[in-house]
Design goal:
The protein has 17 helices and no strands. With about 450 residues, the chain is mostly helical. It is globular.
């Protein structure tokens, strides 16, 4: 390699070392926080937000349920194309990756990992239940808490076996979902099947007071949990693959420096993911008939990992440039406080759209909702940067860590978290929501 070709990699490594405190050649039990990983979480928050916005603002599609402008239809189409199902899988992957950091943290502290993680998952479940009932029924935290037990049970397995298990789980879950979608497409009704009446009832509830909103969420909770667990195979597969990534150091400095490999993954992800996402949007939003919606959802979910990988590797390539490094530094604080930001997003959406707030449910088009959401996201970037300059953890991260440690987290400046640096992150995921990282 020539001196000129070495310089970009040296500069990239130097930027990463200065921004994260990384130590070259550090082993898996002494890993430092990686700026790019925090930035990926921060970026994914935007995708989580726009997907959740369309559900919180009103009917999830425009098939005769609401009148929308052309811009609203285009925004719905783009959200399904570019965001739906992509970001909760990315967060699920990061959950599994972060799980290995938590294991390393417990080992360094001489603590028993299983009790720590069990308390953390229990705390996450309680947070998710409160979130689903009071703010947003599309919560994924409860699903993460339940399926995280599988990751806990597999913690001592070898990376190769875990990788094979991830592929098997993905294949079985994908095959089942595609079969279900195909049956619905071939045998499903041609016209409306009561959806409009159900949506009218839901609209009345969400435009009511606090009691009506909570009642509607409680009524929908069993179906929501069942649907989340139906999709749980993809979450588990992403968990397991993230675990392998942590053990194999796929997001370490050496892997990030292999830009040719990142470019190949990005290209393959785009070639596989974009056609599947386009078919999904055509089925779910239109112009294909209503009975194709389930198949479109299935195709979108099955091909979503490819597009998620393309997003991640494309961003990692960009973050390796001077301009991209500046963007990564702007995104990283939001990624470090992802759980706080995720719940804050739901709180703001509830106050805007539900009856105990402004009551705009079903009264706002997709374009206006997403535009407002991007403004909210920009505010979160600024506030997260301010918060991380002053504190080790966000408020919800602090609470969850206290539950995990069963004691008050250390207040001393410079105390280290799971990744070996101040302020270990919380990792979201769902149709839009988060998972977790552990610290000392």
């Amino acid at each position: 390699m020539t001196q000129q070709s070495q310089q970009p990699h040296q500069a990239q490594a130097g930027i990463r070392a200065r921004s994260t405190g990384a130590v070259p050649g550090q082993g898996p039990t002494g890993r430092s926080r990686i700026l790019e990983v925090d930035a990926l979480r921060g970026f994914a928050l935007a995708g989580i937000l726009v997907v959740n916005l369309l559900a919180t603002a009103g009917p999830p599609d425009s098939r005769g349920l609401v009148n929308v402008h052309a811009a609203d239809g285009a925004v719905q189409w783009l959200v399904v194309l570019l965001a739906q199902s992509k970001f909760y899988l990315l967060f699920s992957f990061l959950f599994g990756y972060s799980f290995t950091l938590q294991m390393d943290s417990a080992a360094r502290a001489g603590a028993r990992f299983a009790p720590r993680m069990s308390r953390r998952l229990a705390g996450l479940f309680v947070l998710g239940l409160a979130h689903a009932v009071l703010l947003y029924i599309g919560d994924i935290l409860m699903t993460y808490a339940l399926l995280g037990l599988i990751l806990l049970a597999a913690r001592n397995a070898g990376p190769d076996g875990v990788r094979r298990a991830a592929l098997w789980v993905y294949g079985v879950a994908g095959g089942f979902l595609l079969l279900l979608g195909l049956v619905a497409a071939l045998l499903g009704p041609e016209g409306p099947d009561g959806t409009a009446a159900e949506q009218a009832e839901l609209t009345a509830a969400y435009r009511g007071g606090f009691t009506e909103v909570v009642g509607a969420n409680l009524k929908a909770l069993p179906d929501t949990l069942a649907a989340a667990l139906l999709m749980g195979g993809f979450v588990v597969a992403a968990f397991l693959l993230g675990f392998v990534a942590g053990r194999r150091q796929w997001l370490g400095a050496a892997a990030l420096a292999d830009r040719a490999r990142l470019r190949r993954i990005c290209l393959v992800g785009l070639v596989v993911g974009l056609p599947g996402a386009a078919l999904s949007a055509a089925c779910v939003v239109g112009p294909l008939p209503e009975r194709w919606a389930v198949l479109g959802l299935a195709v979108g979910v099955v091909t979503a990992p490819a597009l998620s990988a393309a997003y991640a590797t494309g961003l990692l390539l960009w973050f390796g440039t001077p301009g991209g490094t500046a963007v990564a530094r702007a995104l990283a604080p939001a990624g470090r406080t992802a759980l706080t930001n995720y719940l804050t997003q739901s709180l703001v959406m509830a106050l805007v759209f539900s009856g105990y707030g402004l009551g705009l449910y079903g009264r706002t088009g997709a374009a206006a909702a997403v535009g407002g959401g991007l403004v909210l996201y920009a505010c979160q970037l600024v506030l997260s940067r301010w918060l991380m300059r002053r504190y080790r953890l966000g408020p919800v991260e602090w609470l969850l860590r206290a539950v995990t440690l069963w004691g008050r987290p250390a207040k001393a400046a410079g105390a280290t978290g799971a990744a070996g640096v101040p302020g270990t992150p919380e990792v979201p995921g769902t149709s839009g929501a988060p998972g977790v990282v552990e610290g000392r």
